Amino acid sequence: MSFWSRRKPIDLQSSEDDGPPLARTLSWPHLVALGVGAIVGTGILTLIGVGAGRAGPAVMISFALAGLVCACAALAYAELATMMPASGGAYTYSYSVLGEGIAWIVGWSLILEYSLVVSAVAVGWSGYATGFLAGLGLDLPTTLSAGPHVAGGLLNLPAVFIIAVVTGLLLLGTRESATLNFGLVVIKIAALIAFVILALPSFDPGNFRPFMPYGFGAPFVQQGVMAAAAIIFFAFYGFDAIATAAEETKRPERDLAVGILGSMVVCTALYLLVAAAAIGARPFATFAESPEPLALILRDLGQGLAAQWIAAAAVIALPTVLLAFLFGQSRIFLVMARDGLLPRSLSRVSARGVPVVVTVFTAVVTAALAGVLRLDELASLANAGTLAAFTAVGVCLVVLRRREPGRPRLFRAPAYLLVGIVCVVGCITFFLSLRLSTQLYFLLWNGLGLIAYLLYGARRSRLALARRM
User: What residues make up the domain containing 426?
Assistant: First the structure.
């Protein structure tokens, strides 16, 4: 069918909004902070326990593998983002390189990813907030601090609350929220460095033996290095949110590449340090099931006050992840609406340069999910959406190099063929390492999305309407 082959010309990837345009207020420090703010969050503060429970001390290898695949994806994003500095990220690149049908699947997967990331991080924040308040003598009732999956739980009210707060910040404006994000990112990095410094004196090499108690893993097996890498993958992505800020960047031809690659370098180094310090300080089984593993480790080491400060830093700084992904989600909706694949009313921008309707709509949906679902369920399904997007970006990199080798590239990914292959093969392998139920839910989500596209987007898109004229 023709919609699979319809491609939007690269030179036309620009703002096509009926209202005020998105304001160009961001420079590379804002973008690095946005990336670090998105990447460093629930993954290292909470999911390190889940990963260690699946791989044991070999979770270090899981971090390295996930980081390698994400580094290749980051290189691909950097090249494509500087060529197509328009909102939309992987969706935008797929539309110009792979066609409208694939672009819809990628965009629909990104909606899944960003929505569930926001919900998952809100649940992770709730765990630290509840522990922090308990340390102050304020115990929240389980009924209002956990979803129905916990005995006695009904609604995770803290998770709903923090999504509402971050949404309010985003509605103030892009530059204002980015400036606040920068300060909170500094707090978050300082907290992780403080954890490493406090945990290292208790480092015991014996905690790394046996190093790989559950083996390397295989597709559909829920323990082992690959199973842990598939869930820890959640801890690395977030740099793709930078690409969605292309239209709000002062110098996208330079700042996008600096933001994407700079945030990945900072976060990879930090993650390996924190993981090594955590496992060296305590046997992994002692914190594998904790909703606040780093604070738990410090309490076990007799560092009660420091544990309280780490929890406080998480409570203060984890919202940077929410901010980055709520920001990115609203921009995905925005650009898909501009292209006519979603109702055009979603593309309206306020006088402050903020897409208010889609921001509020996203907040309502993510708050509802965060209020009732578990962290690992949310993170696993979010990973599926991200893996689909990263796979598409890796394919776009290779296809565009072959199709248009002479097109100017302000940033060129080194060894592009190897980068593309590692990105695509790694993402497919991680997808096969997810739970079977997660894979089925992902396919169901995209099946529903394809029906929605055929009923609406395939006939109402800008390219479809242009061909009829």
Answer: 24-468
In a domain, 220, yes or no: yes
> 319-338 vs 356-372: helix axis angle to the nearest 10?
130
Is 175 a domain residue?
Answer: yes
3-class DSSP assignment, residue 374: coil
CATH classification at residue 263? 1.20.1740.10
Asked if residue 20 has a cis previous peptide bond (ω within 30° of 0), the answer is no
Query: pLDDT tens, position by position, for the chain (469 residues)?
Result: 466 678 888 776 654 444 455 566 677 777 777 777 667 765 666 667 778 888 888 888 888 888 888 888 888 988 888 788 776 778 989 999 999 999 999 999 888 877 877 887 788 778 778 877 877 777 778 787 777 666 667 788 888 888 888 888 777 765 556 666 667 777 878 888 889 999 999 999 998 888 888 888 665 556 788 888 877 776 777 766 676 666 667 777 677 777 777 777 778 788 888 888 989 998 888 887 777 788 888 888 888 888 888 777 777 767 777 777 787 777 788 888 888 888 887 777 766 666 777 788 888 888 887 777 666 666 667 778 888 989 999 999 999 999 999 888 878 888 899 999 999 999 998 888 777 888 888 899 899 999 999 998 888 888 887 776 6
Position 16 in a domain: no
CA atoms within 13 A on the CB side of 379: 28
C-alpha angle 380/383/388, rounded to 5°?
Answer: 140
Total tally of structural domains belonging to the chain:
1
Report if residue 3 sits inside a domain: no
